[in-house]
Design a protein that fits this description.
Length: 228
Amino acid sequence: MTEGAPFLRLSGVTKIYQPHSETPTPVLHGIDLDVRAGEALAVVGPSGCGKSTLLHLMAGLDTPTAGSVTCGGRDLSALGERERARFRNEELGFVFQLHHLLPQCNVLENVLVPSLVHPRRREAAARARRLLERVGLGGRLDHRPARLSGGECQRVAAVRALINAPRLLLADEPTGSLDRAHAESLCGLLAELQREEGFALVMVTHAEHLARRMGRVLTLRDGRLAED
């Protein structure tokens, strides 16, 4: 990656859905966005405005109809599916609205899942214990998700997303299933971990009071981004 270049760059990104030959549905229109290494930003906007689509494009989980998504100096659209999967595993972390923890696995096992195919997997167990201690779950390593609260499950999901020391963390409405107190707590924790670990963080949310915890806030409306 060129020195000084953004870690993530979206250039002229447009996304149009046209399922089963129906009328095309434009979602994003010519999005331009640079995200620097170590930056924290939030994308706000009403439900259904395309925030999740934008995040999926950033992660290489979807491809743009037009434009390009470059992450770590690589054009994600030019990579094959296996290459994109490897890139996500090694460079990205993802926190969803629902925690998606494996019910048959305990906390430590859930956190370690992404590390099973990672080049540095031997270091993962110590890192997992350290991060779980950091988020207040050091005494819950052997607990299964059914014994945890919703807020605790989301903290486990956040640690799982960070286990491979990603350079970019994408959070898709990570507090959407939590009450206000737990949402505030989780958002504050993500912001603290971002500062401590130095990864770039992009969080999409409809809650503007949570977005204010990030260093930069963008609004997605009518398929276009605007600086808040």
